[in-house]
Amino acid sequence: MAEGSASLAEVQASFHRFAVHGDTKATGKEMNGKNFAKLCKDCHIIDGKNVTTTDVDIVFSKVKVKSARVITFEQFAQAMAELAAKRFKGPSKEESLQQLYGLIIGKEPTNAGVTKVAKAAAVDRLTDASKYTGSHKERFDESGKGKGKAGREEIPDTSGYVSAYKGSGTYDDKVKQA
């Protein structure tokens, strides 16, 4: 039975990884329904025949506290016991639970189907700063690197002359001639 307790710690590690998946504020002590369904899907507990997504949702609703939206690891273990009986028909409850834990151990949330960065010619063309014209061109130096604030904002002229005055800096020359 010692190996059963060792695997329980590994199952708890997987539970923690799935519990924090996609939620920056999650502590890993509790798991929401979405991540529970993801764990069941990614670990192949859902097989489409014996266990479906509907079964997983029903079991989740059954083990959680009525007002709560999350389950603890203890409630998770209850849910796994129920799903094990559905998933592995035949062996004893303990054996089917161990088989189910075998599916979970060492697993992490997969990011299958996550949107990849587009590598299209159109995107390359649109992001090539050397082809920019007009005021946008001034925001980048020759190498295509952005100039930051200097390229983005009009820097005010605090010389004392009126803006766009073409003879700025010529006052001293005019005074000397007179």
Automatic annotation (TrEMBL):
What's an example GO cellular component term for this entry? microtubule
- Record key words, sorted: Cytoplasm, Heme, Iron, Metal-binding
* Name of the protein described by the UniProt record: Tubulin polymerization-promoting protein family member 2
Q: Region (Disordered) spans which residues?
A: 133-178
Which locations, inside or outside the cell, does it occupy?
Answer: Cytoplasm
Encoding gene, per UniProt annotation: tppp2
Keyword Signal attributed: no
- What's the domain of life for this entry? Eukaryota
Member of which family? Belongs to the TPPP family.
Q: What is this organism's lineage? A: Eukaryota, Metazoa, Chordata, Craniata, Vertebrata
InterPro entries given in the database record: Cyt_c-like_dom (IPR009056), EF-hand-dom_pair (IPR011992), TPP/p25 (IPR008907)
